[in-house]
Design a protein that fits this description.
alpha/beta; Rossmann fold; seven-stranded parallel β-sheet
Length: about 350
C-alpha cells in the first residue's frame, strides 16, 4: 500500500532557496508532479513567483529560528538544506554561527518533527586533499577538509555532525550531496561578489582583456551546471537512497580548458607568487576570497560520480565547459534573478 504522502503528494521544505543552488532546486521540485508544495526559506523574501512554491523568511544564525524551523518543517516529507553564508571571510565566527550552528538547528528540527528525509548540501570542499587524476575518488575518501579554509572546515565539521545524526536517527533517510563548483548564468553576479568583490567589472572577462591564463601546480577542478545539480537533488528527494553522492561533469577543468574558453594563451606562474598577491589583496580587503580557499582548491581531489549515476540514474545534461560559458555570459551581461543573492548588475 502506498503511503499517505505519496497518495496526497509530497511537501518539501528548502532552506537557502534564493541562492545559486536554491533557485534551481526549487524550480526542479516545483516541476515534478509528485511534489504538491514547496516551502522555500531564505533570510530575505524574494519577488519570485513560482507555481506550487510558498516563500517565508528565517535567519538560521539566530537562536530564535529554532521554533520557526520546527513549525516550518513539521509535516514535511523532506527537507533540503542548502542555506550557506560565504562571507565575511575575515570573520569566521559569523559564518560559523550561520553555517554550522544554523545547520544544526535545521537538523534538530528535522529530528524533533520526524521528517522522513534530510538532503544536505555538502561539497567537494569537505574532502581531504587527494589525487587530481581521473577517474577520481569515490565517496569513501576522507572528509576532513582543508583546515585553514573556513568553508572547507565548516563543510567537514557538518559531515561529522551528520555521522552522529544518522546513528541517533536511523529512521531518517540522510543524503549528502558533494558537488564540484556550481555555475549558471543567473548566479554569475553572486559568484563574482563572493570571490572577486562587488567592484570588479564584468567586462574584464572579455577574451581580449585576458591575454593569458596562469598554469599553476594543482589547477585541476570540476565544474557542474547548477541545474544539473538541482536534478540530482530532486531525484534524492523522491528515491529511497541514503548516503553521500559526488556530483560532477566532464571534462575536468585545467589551464588548457580555461585558455580555450577565453581564447587566451597559457603562462606558467609560480603558485607562491599568486598566493602572495592574493594574500596581500585579501588582507587589504580588496578581494573577499581568502588565500586559504586558494590553497584548498589546488588540493581538492578529482571526484568520481559513479554512485549518482548508478543509484539516482543521474547524468548531467551540460558539460563543465557549458557551465563555465554560462557563468561568463552572466558576468558580462550582468544577468541575475529577482532575489537578493542573485540580483544582477552590470559593472563597467
Amino acid at each position: 500500500m502506498e503511503s499517505n504522502s505519496r497518495r496526497q503528494g509530497r511537501r518539501v521544505v528548502v532552506t537557502g532557496a534564493t541562492g545559486n543552488v536554491g533557485t534551481s532546486v526549487v524550480r526542479a521540485l516545483a516541476r515534478d508532479p509528485e511534489i504538491t508544495s514547496v516551502l522555500a526559506l531564505a533570510r530575505r523574501r524574494p519577488a519570485l513567483e513560482i507555481p506550487k512554491v510558498e516563500w517565508d523568511t528565517v535567519d538560521l544564525s539566530r537562536a530564535e529560528s529554532e521554533d520557526q524551523l520546527t513549525d516550518f518543517v513539521r509535516g514535511a516529507d523532506a527537507v533540503v538544506h542548502l542555506a550557506w553564508r560565504f562571507q565575511p571571510t575575515h570573520d569566521p565566527v559569523v559564518t560559523w554561527q550561520s553555517n554550522v550552528l544554523g545547520s544544526r538547528r535545521v537538523f534538530d528540527a528535522v529530528a524533533r518533527t520526524a521528517v522522513p528525509a534530510l538532503v544536505h548540501a555538502s561539497s567537494v570542499g569537505a574532502y581531504s586533499p587527494g589525487p587530481k587524476d581521473e577517474p577520481g575518488v569515490d565517496e569513501d575518501w576522507p572528509t576532513d577538509g582543508w583546515p585553514d579554509a573556513a568553508y572547507c572546515r565548516e563543510k567537514a565539521y557538518l559531515e561529522r555532525v551528520l555521522d552522529t545524526f544518522e546513528l541517533r536517527h536511523p529512521q531518517i533517510r540522510v543524503v549528502r550531496m558533494r558537488p564540484g563548483f556550481l555555475f549558471k548564468e543567473t548566479a554569475a553576479p553572486e559568484q563574482r561578489r563572493i570571490f572577486a568583490g562587488r567592484h570588479v567589472p564584468g567586462n574584464l572577462l572579455r577574451p581580449d582583456l585576458l591575454p593569458f591564463v596562469p598554469d599553476l601546480d594543482g589547477l585541476r577542478f570540476q565544474v557542474l551546471h547548477t541545474d544539473d545539480a538541482a536534478e540530482a537533488y530532486r531525484l534524492a528527494v523522491l528515491r529511497d537512497v541514503r548516503g553521500p553522492f559526488n556530483l560532477t561533469a566532464s571534462p575536468v577543468i585545467d589551464a588548457h580548458t580555461l585558455a580555450g574558453l577565453l581564447d587566451a594563451r597559457i603562462v606558467r606562474v609560480p603558485r607562491t607568487l599568486v598566493r602572495t598577491v592574493l594574500a596581500g589583496a585579501w588582507r587589504a580587503r580588496a578581494v573577499p576570497a581568502s588565500p586559504h580557499l586558494f590553497d584548498a582548491v589546488l588540493r581538492l581531489p578529482v571526484l568520481d560520480s559513479g554512485r549518482a549515476r548508478d543509484l539516482l540514474d543521474w547524468q548531467p545534461v551540460h558539460t563543465s565547459e557549458d557551465a563555465l560559458r554560462a557563468f561568463l555570459r552572466g558576468v558580462r551581461k550582468g544577468a541575475g534573478e529577482d532575489t537578493a543573492p542573485l540580483a544582477g548588475r552590470k559593472i563597467g
